[in-house]
Automatic annotation (TrEMBL):
Database matches in InterPro entries: FN3_sf (IPR036116), Ig-like_fold (IPR013783), T9SS_type_B (IPR026341)
Protein name: T9SS type B sorting domain-containing protein
Species: Rudanella paleaurantiibacter
Top-rank taxon: Bacteria
Length: 961
């Protein structure tokens, strides 16, 4: 199968093919795919699928028994054809396949060259048959990627287009490993026969959408276009304007876990006719999502506007068939496979069929399965056959875990919940003990119902559920001991997550709710009675242990009250102990904390946090700690004076929830001695809670007023909360904050100006004007105050500048000016970013404006001919005079056989037609690769790589002449 040649022999073989023979025209399309072969070696099966013209290029197709490959590691091989089958009367599919072992990991570009392309391809330079067909695929060879395969393209590139009608193609790409695929357009490539391992974009290529007289889209609403959907792979030309054959190319990228691990290129031909035939119409097919084990049945229906007969076909990994319809071996998806149920012969319009697929656990994966349906008409011999395509996606997810149960357990602390569920039905094919497929356990407080679709997988943070643990997929129990609190009702759900590369998650299980047994008190109130810096007072209340029966023994009991300073304080100190028999009618669950002379209670400056420890008497007569309450703190109110208003924020830290309630705001006009009047009721959700008092009130009976800057206003907030547990305290829990006072401001503060920058128009006129400049400037102006804002008047403005953007950005003060414009001059480049701030007469600097940035207009022009004959004119090959903002240039020149002739780091290049050893080179065509870095905003931006050719002319073509 394989013939190994030296590099020079390979070139010689290729050069022996006469490029001018008319029968040498035959290559329509092709792509290279790879599959790693099982075993410890890095061995790959490499396949070139090439489509040949069997009408005009039969003799050339007959002779195409070998194709030259480059393996990316310096190895070149001639590979024999293993099959050639007509896929329609005009086109054959040809398979060149071999195996190759790489000696180590790396990124390798595999390429193949066939001489020649099809003749009369009108968007390529003419004659197009002289252009070699060069195709490439890039793979990442890495044992860590497992038995990775590139995507395979299941839909052959055979459909034709009609002038004025939208044409679409989809390659039906499928990745058997479940990797993500993305698509982008490319330019067909060629290679010099003397340098078969290096490809470059075909010189003279034209985008087909600009070919023809006044190309317009099918709806005639704009110009024609050619694009590919990056997600679905739908490639559409809307629409052709000139009959003939065209070649285009696109790339399929393979991504895993956010990393690009390979890409393949399809170079394909489109035949456009001026036929009167209209393409068929396919009924829309919606995307599907099903649990593994479901039977999927999708009806297919197509009609033809001209009443022609129609044939239905379908492509996709689920059918396990290659573009010729032959089953893959080994299969690219696990069985059972899908099938298109339809009559074998063309049907009278409308044509009907059904896709039927019995799914299984082995089909679960994170990526959807793409399915492509094709309807092609049979218009007769005088018209061109047209096709319609419809793609849709099928997502197969793991079935919902069943039978989730939750049981509180007695432990040393009494805080544990044991979960159990039915053994999961979709275990991985490997051992559950070694596979990384896991069962994920989620928990949230409260038992609100979960609104989700029938195929919703996983649990997002927006649902309130948090991941608390994972277990191997073969395990069906989990014990939760993390941060459980009494008085809280907990909801649990579980999800199966499958290992990469296939990945994917199951549908979320039904939820289960559970309460912890209440063997300890619950705090129900921590309210500020008095606000003072020495004589503050707080009342603390709690429940008796709801789940404890005094008749079971343990008396006498004791509550020990602990206090810490601050909303989240942890410096708990015991401040009292209360003995109880838990008998009805005894007031033993309240404590009024007034502090002590040694430790006064400063409720003006601090919030305070409390905890109750509960003790019972052991049979030996000793007090033993049973459990402790969750700590609860007094609400803390903060005031922020603003222009004729006061902003209130308050925070809580309690075992009960204060969200989804209506809190009450009180205000006094005469300080702490005046009466506090209710002025607002504030629905709250999410801390910190907020309210802005402007003096107006919507409450009945409350007189609105304008807050005076000469008055001191005092506020107090009543918080309202509730325990989530249905067995804990029922009803609302009310707690007051301390009283806080403030006066509104009588002036505004500086606002952020609105900054703008005169940006460069990167057009030829602007670039020409910049050619000879060495000093540059940027014009900035700003608006202050911005429209619709009330701001303190500005006395001056500070303008800040950074030469770079991104992580390297560092601003410094450029100028302070009383005006609202500035010309930043004497710059070495226009690139830079700016922001401006306003400064009041009081010297207060306001917030930064928006940031505006200017980038360069990169330009680097290279001629395509020079004459190094020492006549003083055009003796050097160098960039044009209008190359601006250039930082560095790296240049390499190659001869027509791919040999390196000359290299330099000189920004002006100045190649005099000699090689690096100083020897004059003959007249001819030379290829260059020039890497240019521009002094733009982003220092990490990739360089611009220019590839092309330059013609060297000498007198009579003689070296030294």
């Amino acid at each position: 199968m394989l013939t190994r040649y030296t590099f020079w022999l390979g070139i010689g073989v290729l050069l022996l093919l006469p490029p001018t023979w008319t029968y040498a025209t035959h290559v329509r399309a092709g792509e290279i795919t790879t599959r790693r072969i099982p075993g410890s070696a890095l061995r790959y099966q490499i396949t070139l699928t090439a489509y040949f013209d069997e009408r005009n290029g039969r003799l050339a197709a007959d002779d195409a028994n070998e194709v030259a490959f480059c393996l990316g590691d310096g190895t070149t091989l001639n590979v024999r054809r293993i099959s050639r089958n007509n896929i329609n009367p005009n086109t054959s599919v040809n398979i060149y396949q071999f195996e190759y072992t790489y000696q180590g990991p790396g990124v390798y570009q595999i390429s193949a060259i066939i001489i020649n392309r099809n003749d009369q391809t009108i968007n390529l330079r003419q004659p197009s048959l002289d252009i070699p067909f060069w195709i490439r695929t890039t793979i990442q060879v890495n044992a860590g990627l497992g038995l990775n395969s590139t995507p395979v393209l299941l839909n052959p590139p055979l459909d034709s287009a009609r002038i004025g009608q939208r044409f679409c193609h989809n390659p039906a790409a499928f990745d058997s490993d479940g990797d993500s695929l993305a698509y982008r357009m490319a330019v067909p490539q060629e290679a010099n026969p003397g340098a078969i391992c290096r490809g470059f974009n075909i010189n003279g290529y034209r985008d087909p959408s600009i070919v023809g007289p006044n190309p317009r889209n099918e709806a005639n609403t704009g110009p024609a276009s050619l694009s590919i959907n990056a997600r679905t792979g739908d490639l559409c030309w809307d629409s052709p304007a000139q009959a003939g054959q065209y070649n285009i190319a696109f790339i399929v990228e393979e991504w895993r876990d956010g990393v690009l691990i390979g890409e393949i290129t399809r170079d394909m031909q489109i035949f456009v006719s001026d036929s009167r035939n209209n393409r068929p119409l396919l009924d829309p097919i919606p995307d599907l999502c099903r649990e593994a084990g479901s039977l999927i049945e999708v009806p297919i229906r197509a009609t033809d506007p001209d009443g022609q007969r129609l044939e239905l076909t379908a492509f996709g990994g689920i059918f396990n068939r290659n573009p010729e319809g032959v089953p893959y071996n080994p299969p690219i998806v696990p069985p059972p496979f899908g099938a298109l149920i339809s009559v074998a012969q063309p049907q009278t319009s409308p044509a009907n069929g059904q896709i039927r697929w019995q799914t299984a656990c082995a089909h679960i994966r994170q990526e959807e399965y793409d399915v492509l349906v094709r309807a092609v008409d049979f218009p007769g011999r005088t018209a061109t056959q047209l096709a319609a395509l419809q793609s849709f996606r099928i997502r197969i997810v793991g079935p919902r875990p069943q039978g989730l149960r939750a049981t509180p357990q007695a432990t040393a602390t009494g805080r544990a919940i044991r979960l159990s569920w039915n053994p999961y039905t979709c275990l991985p094919p490997t051992s559950p003990s070694t596979d990384s497929t896991r069962m994920l356990v989620y928990r949230r407080e409260g038992c609100a119902p979960l609104q989700s679709g029938t195929c919703t997988t996983g649990l997002s943070p927006s649902t309130g559920y948090a991941l608390i643990g994972t277990v191997p997929i073969g395990t069906n129990t989990f014990t939760d001991t993390t941060g459980l609190r009494r008085g809280i009702q907990y909801s649990y759900r579980i999800v199966a997550r499958y290992a990469l590369p296939a990945g994917g998650e199951s549908v979320v299980s039904d939820g289960v709710c559970v309460d912890l047994p209440l063997l300890a008190p619950l705090i129900t109130q921590v309210t500020v009675d008095s606000t003072d810096n020495q004589r503050g007072q707080i009342t603390v209340r709690w429940t008796r242990p709801i789940g404890l029966n005094p008749a079971d023994g343990g008396a006498p009991f004791q509550y020990r009250v602990f206090r810490a300073t601050g909303l989240t304080g942890t410096d708990f100190t015991q401040i009292t102990a209360i003995t109880s028999s838990l008998q009805p009618g005894v007031a033993d669950t309240v404590f009024v904390d007034r502090g002590t002379a040694a430790q006064p209670l400063n409720t003006q400056a601090n919030a305070y946090r409390y905890r109750i420890d509960f003790f019972q008497t052991s049979p030996q007569g000793a007090l033993t700690r049973v459990d402790a309450t969750e700590p609860a703190a007094s609400p803390r109110l903060t005031l922020n004076p603003a222009l004729r208003q006061i902003e209130l924020t308050w925070a809580t830290n309690t075992p009960w929830s204060n969200d989804n309630q209506t809190h009450v705001v009180f205000r006094s006009r005469r300080g702490t001695a005046g009466p506090l009047v209710e002025v607002a009721r504030v629905p709250v959700q999410g801390q910190p809670y907020r309210y802005t008092d402007t003096g107006n009130s919507t409450l009945a009976g409350v007189q609105s007023l304008s807050l005076s800057v000469d008055s001191n206003y005092c506020y107090r907030v009543l918080t309202v909360g509730r325990y989530t547990s249905t067995t804990a305290v029922r009803g609302l829990l009310l707690n007051y904050s301390q009283i806080a006072c403030a006066s509104p401001l009588d002036t505004t503060r500086p606002c952020a100006p609105r900054l703008s920058l005169d940006s460069l128009a990167c057009d030829p006129a602007t670039q020409q004007a910049l050619c000879n400049q060495t000093s540059f400037s940027n014009n900035l102006r700003w608006q202050y105050p911005p429209a619709g804002q009330s701001c303190e008047p500005a006395d001056r403005y500070n303008l800040y500048y950074s030469r770079l953007a991104g992580p390297a950005q560092s601003f410094s003060l450029v100028t302070t000016t009383p005006t609202t414009s500035f010309r930043h001059q004497s710059l070495t480049t226009v690139a830079g970013c700016y922001y401006v701030t306003a400064v009041s007469r009081r010297g207060i600097e306001g917030p930064a404006s928006n940031t505006v940035c200017q980038d360069v207009c990169p330009q680097f022009v290279l001629p395509n001919v020079f004459t190094p004959n020492n006549d003083g004119r055009n003796d050097l090959w160098q960039p044009g005079s209008c190359s601006v903002f250039v930082v560095s240039v790296e240049t390499v020149i190659y001869n027509r056989w791919g040999g390196r002739v000359f290299s330099t780091s000189d920004p002006q290049i100045r190649w005099d037609g000699r090689n690096s050893a100083g020897q004059e080179q003959p007249s001819g065509l030379y290829y260059y690769e020039v890497v240019v870095r521009f002094g733009g905003l982003d220092p990490s931006a990739p360089p611009v790589v220019l590839k092309g050719w330059v013609q060297l002319f000498r007198e009579n073509g003689v070296v030294g002449g």
